[in-house]
Amino acid sequence: MPQHNYxxxxxxxxSQGGPTDTxxxxxxxxxxxxxxxxxxIIFGLMNEPHDLLSVSTWVTSVQAAVNAIRAAGATSQxxxxxxxxxxxxxxxxxxxxxxxxxxxxxxxxxxxxxxxxHKYLDSDNSGTHADxxxxxxxxxxxxxxxxxxxxxxxxxxSETGGGxxxxxxxxxxxxxxxxxxxxxxxxxxxxxxxxxxxxxYILTLTxxxxxxxxxxxxxx
Length: 220
What we know:
This protein has 6 helices and 7 strands, in the order E-E-H-E-H-E-H-E-H-E-H-E-H. By secondary structure, the chain is α/β, with parallel strands linked by helices.
């Protein structure tokens, strides 16, 4: 259950000219109260924070939201905590990661706090091109090393993907093979597909009208 607002509301960054931490925490308190008994819910604090004025201030906002979720009685669910730079898997170890690693879970331990990372495979990491130019294995290797060095923590690759092209069949296959081989630290992945609202979308994974799958789904 992610908040898809890029750490903003009406253009203002949370606790950095926009909504206060109290307001952000109130939102999560209400959602956690409603879903605290649902073990299948994962709370995703925020999709792709970016261009933050202060990473340390953002980490304080993350801690406030985690506290609010637990105080509402949602004590068993996983919480995805995002960094900065559009939740970049590449930036996490050196940018927001060191501070985010200090976020604590009121229920104890940190096994329920999962780093939320994104990484596409096209030339500018935007997920807007049909061709893939990297398998991201080098980036993910650095990420896994950082996770291990910081208490053997875990991350979820919650956005990745590519087009229905040979370069993406090859590169996405290699990326997901790496994720599978390192599942102790990268606990899973989701491939961005956009659903059925636009079947011409360049990264679509929506099945064809005849029920057959997109090539990327079967080839990678």
